[in-house]
Amino acid sequence: MYHITQYTKDRAKEMGVQVKPSTRAGKKLDVYKNGTYIKSIGQLGAKDYPTYLKEDGKQVAEERRRLYHLRHTGTGIGEKLSKQLLW
Length: 87
Hints:
The chain is α+β, with helices and mostly antiparallel strands. The chain has one domain (6-78). The chain has 4 helices and 3 strands, in the order αβββααα. It has helices at residues 6-15, 49-56, 58-71, 77-86; strands at residues 18-21, 27-33, 36-43. A hairpin with a 2-residue loop joins β2 (27-33) and β3. It starts with 5 loop residues before the first helix and ends with a helix.
């Protein structure tokens, strides 16, 4: 089970959504708006910005974030939510 970081909680609050540990196999978070399920996001087992920050430091985390944004340029709701909440 994924531990939701304060970074993600803060981002969710800014966006006006709620996040809970995902009930879907292989996913980190379930995202809700006004109690309505939107999407499951984040690959369980893959690192994200707050994880890199904690484990490897700010310099590595910033570089991993930059590379993530270069790779993920789609417009789908799941990708947008992942970028905003996890990166």
